[in-house]
């Protein structure tokens, strides 16, 4: 299979992590967002939404949206709960990631880490801090109760939220305010077959 993505993108890193944890072979194709490579005709034929990552399966079928690809790759593994309610909780956290976490933390990181907080985006950057801290507090509250987000076992929900949370400091978020999140990050980093973002 082929995966189109950016190695510094949290949404792409989700897939790099799951392929490492589950030892799934793949061909990686680098896409540079800042050079407009997601807006080319050839890319838009794969994903009309013009976003990474994109997976092309062995038989030519195409899948987009990072969490959909992540769950597809992890299907049947220890990362997908067999219990219906636990699986629904996994999806709950992934919806939370896309709607209440990523729009704040990932965007703040992009403005700060990649753009250097240009003056014309400073107000946007500052507005993202409030939503980002709210999302981090929700995670912190859960992680005072359980080792991982769904329970005392890892799921794809943890991969989804780890991707941008562990680099939230690059978006101006002080993770020392969230000791349970820091413990959770270390817990994931200590797992067998874990690889950091800059190692792929």
UniProtKB/TrEMBL annotation:
Residues 1-81 form the GST N-terminal domain. GO terms for molecular function: transferase activity. Residues 83-200 form the GST C-terminal domain. CDD domains: GST_N_4 (cd03056). The keyword Glycosyltransferase does not apply. Belongs to the GST superfamily. This is Glutathione S-transferase family protein.
């Amino acid at each position: 299979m082929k995966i189109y993505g950016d190695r510094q993108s949290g949404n792409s890193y989700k897939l790099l992590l799951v392929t490492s944890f589950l030892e799934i072979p793949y061909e990686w194709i680098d896409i540079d967002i800042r050079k407009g490579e997601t807006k080319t005709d050839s890319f838009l034929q794969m994903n009309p939404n013009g976003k990474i990552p994109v997976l092309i399966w062995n038989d030519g079928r195409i899948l987009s949206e990072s969490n959909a690809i992540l769950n597809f790759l992890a299907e049947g593994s220890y990362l997908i709960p067999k219990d219906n309610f636990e699986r629904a909780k996994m999806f709950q956290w992934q919806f939370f990631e896309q709607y209440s976490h990523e729009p704040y933390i990932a965007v703040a990181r992009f403005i700060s880490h990649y753009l250097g907080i240009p003056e014309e985006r400073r107000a946007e950057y500052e507005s993202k801090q409030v939503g980002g801290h709210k999302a981090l507090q929700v995670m912190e509250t859960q992680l005072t109760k359980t080792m991982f987000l769904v329970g005392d076992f890892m799921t794809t929900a943890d991969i989804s939220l780890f991707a941008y949370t562990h680099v939230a400091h690059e978006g101006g978020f002080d993770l020392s305010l969230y000791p349970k999140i820091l413990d959770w990050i270390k817990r994931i980093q200590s797992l067998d077959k874990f690889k950091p973002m800059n190692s792929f």
